[in-house]
Design a protein that fits this description.
Blueprint (H helix, E strand, L loop, with lengths): L10 E5 L4 H13 L4 E4 L4 H11 L6 E4 L2 E4 L1 H10 L4
Parallel strand pairs: 1-2
Antiparallel strand pairs: 1-3, 3-4
Helix pairs in contact: 1-3
């Protein structure tokens, strides 16, 4: 018998609509069923400041996992693949 363990964490994605790497992660999220809060830092300067303060740099995409930053679209997608939420 195979058991599936679902990982429950608070996930939020800081992104810019014009960033192709952000779009890559967003596309994955939309097709995978993960539940994530989207934070558009291009429209919200306070959220951009929070990204820099918390993550140390203004780079997007940035997935916050229970408040801890993960950068790089390929790393984000790899983490999401290993931690299903369904």
């Amino acid at each position: 018998m195979t058991a599936f363990i679902c990982f429950l964490a608070t996930l939020s994605l800081s992104f810019k609509p014009s960033c192709p790497y952000s779009q890559k992660v967003i596309h994955y999220l939309e097709t995978s069923g993960h539940k994530v809060e989207y934070i558009n830092i291009a429209e919200n300067t306070e959220e951009r400041k929070t990204l820099v303060k918390t993550g140390g740099k203004p780079q997007v995409p940035c997935l916050f996992i229970d408040g801890k930053p993960l950068y790089e679209s390929s790393d984000i997608i790899a983490w999401l693949e290993k931690h299903p939420t369904k």
